[in-house]
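tool=predict chain=A
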Amino acid sequence: MQTGPADESGSAALLDAGLKVASLPLEPELRPRVLMHLETALAMAALVTDFALPDEAEPAPVYRP
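tool=predict ok
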């Protein structure tokens, strides 16, 4: 995942859309921190979705910690 001005504006648009859909207020002074956490979450998600799995990969039938 790229980081930079282009992604920052995309993240800001995603944040604005999510706030609008959920009808949530966001104080202007908190916006930079919320945006930083959103971008961090998107970067973490990219690590998972960019990991290639073979076609034969299947989830474990039973989870045992």
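The first helix runs from residue 5 to 22. Residues 15 and 50 are 22 Å apart (CA to CA).
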